[in-house]
């Protein structure tokens, strides 16, 4: 009897699930992508216990026809491709028909769906890949999928899941990426009854960025756009002053599909050139529109990685687009004067919140209802006039609840009285935008979140030039130069400033040298491992283009008889080995790239050091030459050359501008409560 047999469908689906469904975040990704393929305008994700108990995705998309619902859970059943040609022009998030059967094989799944103009929807229930029920059901247009008991029949996979906090972070990251890739879709994400994320779905990418990374980060993003014959690059990148310690804040989409690609990530970083500190990375959201025939998404089970045609061309376009956009900006960072503003004493704030809760309890108000007000009091204590209301006044202002059991009760006399009482009333603006008591109590205008505009780094008070005309004042501790302009005080790091000036001069001088060769008195022998030797041989033409003509000298050795004349005397061998190491690491090398690296090294060694006192003539000459640089804002290593205190910063620090008074706990007397 033969030993080869065909696996049953359920076991095959469970094997496939091991590649596609790794954790709860994988289920969220697959279900939301199905919703996006269904042209949904709103997607709600509801999760319990980080997805281990329940995952529910509700959308308002096209829905699934009743006859296709059961077929949708068959392996390799899909509506998104029909032929081999379609496989190489994929324009949807999913296309393999693996997600739903893989999920159903390792969990309990209930799906309710309906298409437009249908008289009824359809509900299907599967458990462990086996059909439990398939019956008609009332439903609105769209799809509602609920996944419970994940990995109940493959408990070994539960051992590889991380803590609930880690799994929740993975889900949140997936939803953030999907929202960034689809700003035209309104997403909401709720975990254990608490809303974690919501986007407006108004096609405003910068607003989505602000929702995820914060308003301040959103204001420091620059819109970028670049095109060539094959690609269109759009999105936002952060100013060099906004950086993170890892690359995970870089989001790359290809035709609005989030992907990971090292070459494109590297191109984004290269677009900043020397404007980033070592070990720091920008926040970036880049979408690349291209013909689907130029990308193969069928190379990874979860479709996180893709294979690109003309990848080098695209990388150059991205780097050039970012470089040109940042070159238009004044990159001098402003000092945050808000940190000099006194903050409320935490002990006083805690005491105020405790007394507010005690007062609420004495009025018979449920403390759960006052939790939000209590937390708000941490940064925005109630004004005294609000706290002075007595118990009788409060009781008279709290109406008895109107409870409606059926629609006919909406026309009752009690309901009409309630409407008449509140139809002309509006909530006074007790607090201004900064969370402090407002000067008046005029009604507030409704918040227009859909039309939120995030102005990028308002520098309206600065001079119109890209770099200000600095007037020398003096030197501080032999390290910093103090200067002024029409818009405030500037502090210049003299070492970073001269390092930038030297770098641009050396880069130009090195770039002007000839391609002449200098012969070694004794040829240089270079030995490498077999793997490295093969790499060097494959890139011999690249090395020859930068003046290194290597000859094979044994199995893994090379002979070099001459070198370019621009090599620094005494450092010829080190320079050759460094260039070859670059080839081994990246597979690419240009004279421009290597000379730039050499110029950085030379400029740093020959710049003014700290604690070196300059006379007035030298300091003024340094400030005069700095604005003539192509990039006067950063040293070649990315450190800022100067920081700026504008007039408002100085006035706030010296209390010439004072914030409105905020009452603390000591401002209240006991009888106020």
Structure description:
By secondary structure, the chain is of the alpha+beta class. 33% of the residues lie in helices and 20% in strands.
Overall geometry comes to: flat
Number-wise, the strands total: 24
- Poorly predicted runs of 5 or more residues: 365-398, 424-452, 458-464, 660-673
Secondary structure tally, helices: 21
Report how far the terminal alpha carbons are from each other.
89 Å
Give the spatial strand order of the biggest sheet. 5-4-3-6-2-1-7-8
Question: What kind of sheet is the major sheet?
Answer: 8 strands, mixed
Percentage of residues in helical conformation: 25-40%
Fraction in beta strands? 15-25%
Rg over C-alpha atoms, rounded to the nearest angstrom:
32 Å
Mean pLDDT: 77
Helix-strand category: alpha+beta
What descriptive keywords fit this protein?
single chain; 673 residues; alpha+beta; eight-stranded mixed beta sheet; five-stranded mixed beta sheet; 20% strand
Quick summary:
With 673 residues, the chain is an alpha+beta fold. 33% of the residues lie in helices and 20% in strands.
């Amino acid at each position: 009897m033969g030993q080869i047999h065909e696996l049953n469908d359920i076991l095959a689906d469970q094997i496939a699930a091991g590649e596609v469904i790794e954790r709860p975040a994988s289920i969220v990704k697959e279900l939301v992508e199905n919703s996006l393929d269904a042209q949904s305008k709103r997607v709600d994700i509801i999760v319990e216990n980080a997805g281990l108990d329940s995952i529910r995705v509700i959308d308002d998309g096209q829905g699934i026809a009743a006859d296709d619902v059961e077929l949708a859970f068959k392996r390799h059943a899909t509506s998104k491709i029909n032929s081999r040609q379609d496989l190489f022009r994929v324009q949807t998030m999913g296309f393999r028909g693996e997600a739903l059967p893989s999920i159903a094989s390792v969990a309990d799944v209930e799906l309710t769906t309906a298409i437009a103009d249908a008289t009824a929807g359809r509900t299907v229930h599967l458990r462990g890949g086996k059909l439990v029920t398939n019956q008609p059901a009332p439903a609105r247009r769209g799809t509602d999928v609920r996944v419970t008991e994940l990995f109940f029949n493959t408990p070994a996979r539960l051992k590889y899941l991380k803590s609930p906090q880690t799994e929740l972070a993975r889900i949140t990251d997936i939803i953030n990426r999907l929202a960034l890739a689809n700003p035209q879709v309104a997403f909401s994400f709720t975990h254990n009854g608490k809303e974690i994320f919501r986007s407006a779905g108004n096609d405003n990418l910068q607003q989505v960025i602000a929702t995820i990374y914060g308003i301040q980060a959103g204001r420091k993003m620059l819109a970028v756009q670049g095109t060539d014959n094959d690609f269109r690059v759009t999105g936002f990148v952060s100013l060099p002053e906004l950086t993170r310690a890892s690359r995970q804040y870089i989001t790359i989409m290809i035709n609005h599909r989030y992907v990971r690609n090292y070459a494109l990530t590297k191109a984004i970083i290269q677009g900043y050139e020397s404007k980033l500190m070592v070990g720091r990375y920008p926040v970036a959201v880049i979408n690349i529109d291209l013909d689907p025939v130029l990308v193969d998404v069928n190379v990874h089970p979860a479709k996180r990685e893709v294979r690109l045609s003309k990848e080098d061309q695209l990388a150059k376009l991205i780097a050039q687009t970012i470089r040109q956009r940042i070159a238009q900006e004044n990159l001098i960072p402003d000092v945050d004067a808000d940190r000099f503003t006194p903050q409320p004493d935490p002990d006083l704030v805690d005491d105020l919140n405790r007394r507010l809760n005690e007062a609420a309890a004495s009025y018979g108000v449920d403390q759960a209802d006052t939790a939000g007000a209590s937390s708000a009091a941490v940064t925005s204590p109630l004004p005294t006039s609000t706290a002075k209301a007595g118990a009788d006044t409060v009781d008279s202002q709290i109406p008895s609840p109107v409870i409606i059991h059926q629609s006919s009760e909406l026309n009752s006399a009690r309901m009409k009285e309630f409407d008449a009482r509140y139809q002309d009333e509006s909530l006074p603006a007790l607090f201004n935008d900064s969370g402090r008591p407002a000067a008046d109590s005029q009604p507030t205008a409704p918040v227009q979140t859909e039309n939120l505009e995030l102005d990028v780094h308002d520098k309206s008070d600065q001079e119109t030039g890209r770099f200000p005309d600095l007037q020398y004042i003096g030197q501080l501790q032999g390290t910093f130069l103090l200067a002024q302009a029409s818009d405030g005080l500037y502090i210049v790091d003299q070492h970073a400033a001269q390092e930038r000036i030297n770098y641009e001069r050396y880069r130009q001088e090195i770039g002007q040298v000839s391609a002449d060769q200098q012969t070694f008195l004794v040829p240089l022998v270079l030995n490498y491992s077999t793997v490295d030797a093969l790499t060097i041989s494959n890139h011999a033409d690249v090395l020859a283009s930068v003046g290194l003509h290597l000859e094979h000298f044994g199995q893994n050795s090379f002979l070099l008889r001459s070198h370019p004349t621009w090599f620094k005397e005494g450092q010829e061998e080190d320079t050759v080995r460094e260039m070859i190491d670059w080839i081994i690491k990246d597979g690419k090398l240009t004279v421009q790239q290597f000379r730039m690296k050499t110029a950085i090294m030379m400029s740093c060694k020959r710049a003014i050091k700290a604690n070196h006192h300059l006379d007035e003539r030298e300091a003024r000459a340094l400030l005069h030459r700095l604005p003539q640089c192509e990039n006067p804002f950063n040293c070649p290593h990315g450190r800022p050359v100067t920081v700026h205190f504008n007039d408002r910063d100085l006035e706030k620090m010296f209390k010439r501008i004072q914030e409105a008074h905020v009452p603390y706990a000591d401002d209240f007397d006991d009888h106020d409560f």
